[in-house]
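note to self: dont lose this again. the chain is below, predicted strucutre after it. 199 aa total, dont forget to put it in the shared folder this time
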Amino acid sequence: MTCRELMTPAPSCCEPADNVVSAAMIMKNYDIGSVPVVLDRASMRVVGMVTDRDLTLRVVAEQRDYYNTRVEDVMSKDVITCSTDDDYNEVIEAMKEHQIRRIPVVDSAKRLVGIIAVADVARESEIAEDVGVVVEEISKPAPEPEIVRDGHAANYAKAGLLLAGGLGVGAGLIYLLDPRWARRAVDAVKETVTRHGDQ
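---
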């Protein structure tokens, strides 16, 4: 099977000059975690990917004004793509190696023509183990930093991110992306602050 057979054609995309709210709205409307960035709608040449992680770490955590922050300011420029004629197995290997869930598909002129997501692999795979292996490899967690205080190790990664981003503007963007996650994250911050305030 080739990427052409596996891909979802004509995926949503944004341009470098779009503000990050546009990218966030695409993610919300289509329930996706990353959006290809094209140079312009005429060329459709892929120049980057913007992810929910980019928005969280580079907009929310840095307390940027998200209506005045452009996609090109936060996008990842080293984009892994596949060609329409690449084999299914090459896509699986690329997803595992780079721990990514969506890969833009480009034609011979490097124009965006489709996207392949883990869901596409799951839908087309005849071997359930393929999907399990891909998801397992993609989902391997990166080690999270720990802060040691008075001999106690405490994981502040998620709580610190929310506090650094501020619960005003930052929570607004996170809520826009995933309201359920935002509510859980706020509760986690409250619990962490209370727990460590009592020590």
